[in-house]
Specification:
The structure is a homodimer of 226-residue chains.
Chain A (H helix, E strand, L loop, with lengths): L1 H6 L19 H5 L6 E4 L4 H8 L3 H11 L3 E4 L2 H4 L4 E6 L10 E5 L7 E5 L7 H10 L4 E5 L3 E6 L3 E6 L2 E6 L5 E2 L12 E10 L3 E3 L4 E3 L1 H13 L1
Parallel strand pairs in A: 1-2, 5-6
Antiparallel strand pairs in A: 3-4, 6-9, 7-8, 8-12, 9-11, 10-11, 12-13
C-alpha cells in the first residue's frame, strides 16, 4: 500500500492502524495525524469503521483535515462511509426486495448521497434503487471498481478511472411500492432518472445535473477565451 | 417440461424439436403445429434460433398462430428472440464499454424493444444501457428470472412473477459518448428514464408510460363503476 502511494508521488506515508475504539483516543495515534494533508480509508466493514471511529478525537482530526482543505478518500467500505447516510448491506445480483437493506449513519463528509461500490461488478443497481426509494432526497452514487468520484466543495463531483459511475436520482419518481410494507415483495419504482458517467464527466449534486467531458472542455475553453 | 405445462392446465403438449434449418421445412414437423394455440421457446442460443427458423414455413406458422390470437412465449434466449432487434451477447457484470455488444435481427413479434433476461441475477443493466444508447428509439426491457412480461396487442405489457422488470427509456437522453468510437471506453449516457416494475405493474410501449398495480386496480374499478 505504501508503495502505491509513493508511486503516486506522495512523499510521506504513515499507517494509522486502529482496531478498537480505545485506540482512537491514544495520544500517540492522534499525533500521527499532525501535518497530514490527506487520509485514505482502506476497505473492510463500514459499520466497524463508524462504530470504532465515530466521534473520537481521531475522527475529529479527520474532520479538521477535511475542513482545512485536505483530501479524505477511501475505497470499497472506505468509500461508503463518506456520506451522512451509508449503505451497510443488502443483496447484490438481485432486484431489491422490500426490507432487504441495512443503512446507517456514516461519517457525513458528503451530504445528500448514498454511496455504493463494486457497482457493476457485483450487480448492485437493485439495492441502490432500494436505498433511493426510501428517501429520494438522497442521491444514489454507484461506483465501479477502478473508478472514483472526486468531490469538491461537497457539491461537485468528477469521475476518474476506467469504469462508470451511476447516479440514481429519485426526484422525478412518480410512484413506488416501498411504503406498502409487503416484506420481500419486489420493488416497484417509476420514473427514476439515471445518469451513467464516465471519465471526465461531472455532476452537480445541488442542481442534480450531469455534464459531459466534452461540455466540460467547452466550458473550460469558454472560460479561457474570456 | 411437459409436466410443467400439464400442471398449468395445458391439455395437450407436443414437442417440436428442430436442430437444422432443413427440418423447419419438413411436412411432418409443420403438421405438428396444426390446431396449436400457443408456442413456447426454451432457452439456448438466440442466434441459433433465428438462423435456423427465420423465414422458414415453421416460422410462418408461428407468425400465423400469433396473428390469430395465439400465445407465443419463451424464456431466456427464447425471450430475447421475440423482438425485432435482439441482443445476442455482451458482457454482464460490467459497465458497458463502447463496442462490446452484439445485436441482430430477432423474430419481430414485438416491435420497438430490445429484451434482456436473467437481468438482475447476471448484472445486465450495463449492457442494456449500451443497447439503448445505440438507438433510443428502442426501449430496453430487462427481465429478472422467475418473472415475465405479458404483451398484449404488441403495445401493452404487464409484469407477472416474483422479480422485477426494468424499462430503460432513452427518449429523454441529453448526451452520450456512444458515437465517439473510442473502443472499450466506458459508456457515458445522461438523463435515462428508468422504470422498475413488479407484479401487477404495467407499461404502455407507445406512450412510454408505467402504471402501478394500484393505479391499475383503480382504473379497473372505475371501469366497473361505469
Amino acid at each position: 500500500m505504501r508503495r502505491v502511494f509513493r508511486d503516486l508521488g506522495v512523499r510521506e506515508v504513515v499507517e494509522l492502524d486502529i482496531r478498537e475504539r480505545q485506540e482512537a483516543r491514544e495520544e500517540a495515534k492522534i499525533r500521527l495525524l499532525d501535518n497530514v494533508a490527506g487520509v485514505f480509508f482502506s476497505g473492510g466493514d463500514q459499520r466497524r469503521m463508524t462504530s470504532q471511529l465515530g466521534d473520537t478525537p481521531i475522527y475529529g482530526r479527520f474532520q479538521e483535515i477535511y475542513d482545512e482543505g485536505g483530501v479524505i478518500c477511501g475505497t470499497s467500505a472506505g468509500a461508503s462511509v463518506m456520506s451522512d447516510v451509508m449503505l451497510i448491506s443488502g443483496d447484490s445480483k438481485e432486484s431489491y426486495r422490500l426490507g432487504d437493506l441495512q443503512m446507517g449513519p456514516g461519517f457525513g463528509l458528503i451530504r445528500g448521497v448514498i454511496i455504493d461500490q463494486h457497482f457493476a461488478e457485483r450487480g448492485r443497481i437493485g439495492r441502490l434503487l432500494g436505498a433511493v426509494a426510501q428517501n429520494p432526497r438522497y442521491i444514489g452514487l454507484g461506483i465501479d471498481e477502478n473508478t472514483a468520484v472526486v468531490v469538491e466543495g461537497g457539491m461537485h463531483l468528477r469521475v476518474i478511472g476506467e469504469g462508470a459511475v451511476y447516479v440514481v436520482d429519485g426526484e422525478s419518481v412518480t410512484c413506488s411500492n416501498i411504503a406498502e410494507g409487503r416484506q420481500h415483495a419486489a420493488l416497484s419504482i417509476h420514473d427514476v432518472r439515471l445518469q451513467v458517467l464516465s471519465e471526465g464527466d461531472s455532476y452537480d449534486l445541488a442542481m442534480r445535473l450531469p455534464m459531459s467531458s466534452e461540455q466540460g472542455r467547452e466550458s473550460r475553453k469558454d472560460a479561457a477565451d474570456k
